[in-house]
Amino acid sequence: MRTRVAVGLYVWMLLVGAAAGGLVGAGAQRPQGGPGMPGPVVATHRLQVGGTTLQVDFAAGAFDLASEKVLGHVDMAAKAVAAYYGKFPVVGARVLVVPVADDRGILQGTTWGGVRSWPAFTRMRIGQHTTQGDLDDDWMMTHELVHMAFPSLADDQHWMEEGLSTYVEPVARVEAGELKPEQIWRDMVRDMAKGEPRDGDQGIDHTHTWGRTYWGGALFCLTADVAIRRETHNRKGLQDALRAIVDAGGTINHDWELPKALAIGDNATGTHVLLRQYEEWKDKPVAVDLPKLWEELGIKAVNGGVEFVDSAPGAEIRKAITKAR
Ligand SMILES: [Zn+2]
Fold it and tell me: 139 C-alpha to center of ligand 1: Å?
């Protein structure tokens, strides 16, 4: 059983350090022994989202916020994922909310496939003193639920699982009307370069740093999305590929080889973009000319934000990627 953990760079370093040296840092909450119960469930709710039922359980513990607010946050994230995929990606899922005493913020999310009778199970650790503002700013809940929408891959392709969630999460939230396109393009301009290969890096299947895993994977997705849209005159995008993969049964509770998923995606868009790009990227470092890409898409960084240039050759591609429906 493989797990996906939403972590920032700091926790990533602790996890890698813990794995390498047998040390466990204070902040490294590596899941131990699978998705066991951290304590008794004190409340159970059911949400109807995108054609399925999500069971949301609360473990024992206190929140300053009313639990309805936390439940509303799960609902919003699930709706964004359902909007992107056209339905909730798995039939039946469970979310376990674990309050963490004397802490604040959405601390950690982990998602597993095939847990007992559940096709997918997400555990979210949320601090007792979390505010509504913290929930409003949170990306992790959506990121975790996106993990349900892709098959489980071998460890060398962990970058695809994390990169996909990193890329799809904000795009899905724009589609659901939660975020504005300006916000997510600003973030991509700021963060995508973290995914570029550094000196000494190998192909994306072989260099498993935090940057290459999360942002290298996201860069793969962005590059593929733009290429599919170019080749199809903007009639198809990565979203069509990803929906087809889910429709073919490619969800977290199934172990697949990555090329199988990519071939299904390519078939859905009538291109060879995904398999071709994977062949190019897997064994050797491929840099993306990001300044050129932003210019082509009509995205100009100004004063900590971005401005759009609608006369740019790829402006329509940019608009299609971040289109609210
Ligand atoms: Zn993740």
Answer: 11
